[in-house]
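Hi R.,

As promised, here are both runs. First protein below:
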Amino acid sequence: MERKKLILIFSVGILICFGTTPNCAQIDSKTERDKSKYSLVSSMAVMNFELGDMYLDLYRMSKKNNRQNFEKTIEHYKQGLRFEPENVYYNNRLGYAFHLERRLKEASEQYRNVLRLDPPQSVTPEEFELAMRLAPRLYVNPKEFFALEDAVVILHPDQPIIEYSLFWDDDINYPQDNDPTDHEKVWIEYDPESGNIVNVYTYFHRAILSTKKAVEDAREHHNRALINVQWGSHGSLPFGWEDIPRDQIVVKYAHIDKPGTIGDMRNRYKKHVVSTYNPNHPLSKEWPKKFRGSWQDYITFTQYIDLTEMIRKKKMVMKSRWSNAVIDEYFLDYQFYPKLEWPSDVP
């Protein structure tokens, strides 16, 4: 019986190739045309998204022509999505761009598309305990004014890396930015076989900091990395941050050769000890107007925050590639500023 089925299938193949229409040459020709058409459509999508990324770089690095650069970003991203409307990465980029400008309804619409195309996953009890076990030790300055409001944990579905998103009550320099919290990040990369930490990355004012000392210190403390949090502005500092060369604290761009330099802690202390950026804004009337203390006081981090307690209480833990979308759709009912999702991404 099986042999008869094979003969029948073979016979149908002969009829297709030698019957009336279409013949094999026509089928092959149509297939090649379809491939060529798809390749052209894909190329047009890629071209538009690269142009969108370039304009987004220009928008983020300079205030010059800011509005025009942002509109060009949106124009090219939308054009790219006309060619590939189901491309999850392109939907995420458009959502991220809208989010940067606080066009929140449009951002949320794109984020919903992202999560429809690549749904997030709930974590298993073992994954939840892994996130707890590798949660960093947080220390803030004893003069810190703002509390840690929320913490969201996102596990990457394909790579052994965990993101800890931290939401502080506000940023001392930006009472007027329409963001009710200050969003900061720490990423912990681990060996899935041994469970040991292999890398610690922190977000520091759009730069990504990482040190070997941070890994060594974490190994000495049951794989829990030490993170010191800058006064007022909450830039996250890994153990050994003092030894990072000034010229390595930069923001890199995908389409702009010259990286943007970021003020280091000493530079930020010199500004904060004089004044915050907007001390007389009505919303900051109860806030400190400057840091009162020496440089040594500024880099003292002795107040411990138990991150595991907050994670266990709020249980905002999920698995996804798209952390901004997940946080927006599943966890927070207030506006937050979007940050890059993984340390390998271009800020």
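And here is the second one, sequence first, then its structure tokens:
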Amino acid sequence: MALMSKDNARRLVHGINRLIGVNGATPNLNGAPSVRENSVLNPKNPERFDVIVVGAGPAGSAAALVVARAGLKVLLLERGEYPGSKNVSGAALYGSAILDEIIPNWWEHAPVERFICRRGLAFMSLETAVSLDFRSTKYASPPYNGFSVLRPKFDRWFAAQAEAAGAFLLNASVVDDVLWRDGCVAGVRVRRDAGDLCADVVIACDGANSFLAKKAGLQREFHMHEMSLGVKEVIGLDEPTVRERFQLSGDEGMAIEYLGAITEDVHGGAFLYTNRDSLSLGVIGQISSFVEHRHRPYDLLERFKAHPAVAPLVRGGKLREYSAHIIPEAGWKMMPKLYTNGMLVAGDAAAFCFAVGLYLEGINYAIQSGLAAGETAVAAYRDRDFSAQSLSRYEQYLQARHVLGDFQSYRHAPEFINGARLQNFYPAVVAHGAERLFRVDGTEKRKILPIALETLRHFDIKPRDLIRDIYNAGRAFGW
């Protein structure tokens, strides 16, 4: 994986700054062409497929794999030079057993980095970190609970599985429009000669802020507080150093999520994943917070790496890659309508990113939704009915895979997690209380309750506010 040049890094950072309005530009969440009137399918014998999947990420490849295995003619369109080329590298893939259902023992063939058997959650002040550290030997045996992966490698491998099943993969293909015939989505228009492609079902897996979902009238424009911007680096370290610093053996791996002062007054958090010979780490923040407080994402990332709890972990590493990505984090409240006549929406395009503090998951839900979309398309083809009513069974498949249930159950969590009190207040409270608890200065040992009460008074936490926060936490995670 090549190191990004300084010039390219500067251009990327400048683009991010323009996105958040730091240089006076108006924030723009629409990376796709502006929405035009609906386009009608060109009648001059366009190339035809049973199913067209737009986007060769985990959702798109999963959908294409299911459809191809059913014997249907499926086209998988990818905007990048190859699947994964435009994705942020370095990620945690949880739910290994999900992929094992369709590709048995997939980890023996896929380009995985480490299996994650250790997870951490750290509450940060400017100088202190209080961590919860979970480790399980049960997660260190097949089918494993999760893996760290590098997306360019993993996505390319996953798309190849769909190809091996019979899917046609077309790279470097920019989709400009959804095509209609008699009120039904009938294909897509690709930026090339004779670019109209026809299909009975189009599955939109074109990522966050899906252009296709909006063109089909399934998704509204997003508010800036519903979208987050993640900036990430992959830092190279040799394998023995990775194992030693994180107390790992063999192929064991660790994932850590951070909350608190590291993002200052930007609502968000940070993460760190161990790869085989590198670390993937980054900062994620609400775009509205970046705009309001005029923070540059890269500056926050540098401060995160310099924090006393993080700096020893990245010491001596060499930058291999720097990248940025928009993430749909509002969950249930920003979910589009998932189907219409001739079309389904899956993955990030359907806002299936489960970012609720305790969980930072997306690839597993993308795969689940892709499988459900593929199953729906196959069932509709067998019935020869591609109407919205027929495709509505997609929701049943999503319910059966616990996708919609999870997002509905945790529908209050994103708002609570991104609230100012949890982001900027309680991590400081926890850090201050822990510092008082473990301080040894020759004074008498105090019990936990007096220290807790004193900490609450120190931060002027009123009982009614504490009760309200406990209720909101319970509503988000407890019941």
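A quick note on the second one: The longest strand covers residues 112-124. Let me know what you think.

Best,
J.
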